[in-house]
């Protein structure tokens, strides 16, 4: 069999625009421009000649597996029995990871939360938002030994100084299996948001290194949380730009390439207040598709009513993941959006803007 070859000839941008104008039948070209960033319109007429460099191709390791379906459980206002029932129900519907958000208003952890659960068969995580009362040596006696402790760095005024052993020697969490979570806000200019979170990571990394700990270990502990933005094109651009920045940020500070085994990007799809389940499912499907196409490690569907949501609503939300990821192979192989010139153009430009500001 002959090797596959394209039979289409490349055309110039001028010829392309003339064809578009003819197809629009008198409507102006700018009628196809849309707003997606404050003060900037999305130009749909990006040609290969407009790119400042080669097309962006994200590492193949981002597309080896579907995102891990994760259940987010906030302990506030729930009884231990309700928490246990929520966990069991999620696991029966093929959830692969559980995040327990521990709050001051929720019940203290007890073994009943995990009754009937085999923690060694799932990824169990506990997220802490307040560093003032942390005492890891006590927590690790009641939580399973493989529990991943997630320190919500964005909710703290400064890098936590409580990670120390009984002798007072600062070890920044070396005694426990922890990750540091950084949230990328949904509202605001995407370039400024990405710049701010990487500046915070850079500052925290300095504290970590001053404690005599290796940069690679800290950077591999970072998790970045993104609430699925709208519109769809903004979601794709934000995630692709962040991937490009983080891969280079890691290499810049360590001199190494980030291992494909390191999972660092977590996407949350939040149901809006007063949003119907039907509308949410449509939006969640689009966000789930964007997660597949842009390389996402964890995906979380969060309904407004949490545990009080109906069984069917929670199940259908989880099925979005199953249908898009587990019953298709769209996420496998190389970067599926590489060579989409509009995406490449804005990804390159946004990443360059952030990178120049980080080097100042």
Walk me through what this model shows.
There is one protein chain. By secondary structure, the protein is α/β, with parallel strands linked by helices. It has helices spanning 13-24, 80-92, 136-139, 190-210, 215-219, 232-254, 277-294, 311-326, 341-358, and strands spanning 34-37, 40-42, 68-74, 97-102, 123-128, 148-152, 178-184, 222-227, 265-270, 298-302. It has an eight-stranded parallel barrel with strand order 3-4-5-6-7-8-9-10, surrounded by four helices. A two-stranded antiparallel ribbon has the order 1-2. The termini are far apart. Helix 7 runs parallel beside helix 8 (311-326). Mean pLDDT is 82; it is low at 162-175. The radius of gyration is 23 Å and the shape is globular.
Write the layout of secondary structure elements.
Layout: H1 13-24, E1 34-37, E2 40-42, E3 68-74, H2 80-92, E4 97-102, E5 123-128, H3 136-139, E6 148-152, E7 178-184, H4 190-210, H5 215-219, E8 222-227, H6 232-254, E9 265-270, H7 277-294, E10 298-302, H8 311-326, H9 341-358
Parallel strand pairs: 3-4, 3-10, 4-5, 5-6, 6-7, 7-8, 8-9, 9-10
Antiparallel strand pairs: 1-2
User: What is the SS-derived class?
Assistant: alpha/beta
Q: Give the CA-based shape.
A: globular
What's the Cα radius of gyration?
23 Å
Round the mean pLDDT to the nearest integer and report it.
82
* Main sheet: strands, sense, barrel: 8 strands, parallel, barrel
Trace the largest sheet across and list its strands.
3-4-5-6-7-8-9-10
Number of helices: 9
Strand-residue proportion: 15-25%
